Amino acid sequence: MPDQYETRDLRESDIPALATIADDTLFPGEMLGEMVAPALAGESEDVWRVVTRGGAPVGFAMAQPEPMTDRTWNLRAIAVSPELHGGGAGSVLLSAMEGAMSARLIVIDTTQLPEQDRARQFYTARGYTHVSTIPEFFGAGEDKVTFVKFVDEARR
C-alpha cells in the first residue's frame, strides 16, 4: 500500500487541504499559512514535505535545524488525514523527511496523553528511541515525551 503515496516539497496551493488536516490532527489550520510562509519565500532552512495520494495532498511534515548543534533537527510536525492512519502514508512521509534533512540526529517531541499513544508507537516502530519525559512541560498534566534517532551516515 505505501507505493500509492508520493512525497514532494510543499506548495502554496497545498495550504487549504493541509489546513484541514492540521485542524483534524495537530493545531488550528488557520496557523498553517503563516507557518509555511518563510519556507515558501526561501527565507528559512525549514524542511516541509507533503505526502500525496493520486496527486492530492493527504499529509505534511515540517522540521527545523536546532541552532548551535551538529546537524540536529527537530521534527516539529507530522500529520496525515485521519482516515489514512495505519495505511502507510505516515511511514512514507517520515522516511522522506529523514532523507530531506541534513541530519545526524532527529528529535521528535510529543506528549504522554492518551490521544498521542498511536504517535508514540509509530515513532518507536520506526527506530526512534524514547530518551526523556519532562513532567508538565506543556502545562498542568501534559508532559513532554522526547524521541530521538541517529541517522545513518550513508543517507546524508
What is the CATH first-level class name?
Alpha Beta
Task: Provide the β-strand percentage band.
Answer: 35-45%
Rg (CA only)? 15 Å
The 3D shape can be described as globular
Query: What is the percent of helical residues?
Result: 25-40%
Explain the overall architecture.
- This protein has a 7-stranded mixed beta sheet, sandwiched between helices.
- It has one domain (2-155): Gcn5-related N-acetyltransferase (GNAT) (Aminopeptidase), CATH 3.40.630.
- The chain has helices at 15-25, 32-40, 89-100, 117-125; strands spanning 5-9, 47-53, 56-65, 72-80, 105-111, 129-139, 142-150.
- With 156 residues, the protein is an alpha+beta fold.
- It is built from 4 helices and 7 strands.
- A hairpin with a 2-residue loop joins strand 2 (47-53) and strand 3 (56-65).
- The longest helix has 12 residues, at 89-100.
Question: What labels would you give this structure?
Answer:
156 residues; alpha+beta; Aminopeptidase; seven-stranded mixed beta sheet; 4 helices; 7 strands; 26% helix; 37% strand; globular
Write the layout of secondary structure elements.
Layout: E1 5-9, H1 15-25, H2 32-40, E2 47-53, E3 56-65, E4 72-80, H3 89-100, E5 105-111, H4 117-125, E6 129-139, E7 142-150
Parallel strand pairs: 4-5
Antiparallel strand pairs: 1-2, 2-3, 3-4, 5-7, 6-7
In a few lines, what is going on in this structure?
With 156 residues, the protein is α+β, with helices and mostly antiparallel strands. The protein has four helices and seven strands, in the order βααβββαβαββ. The longest helix is centred in the middle third of the chain and has 12 residues, at 89-100.
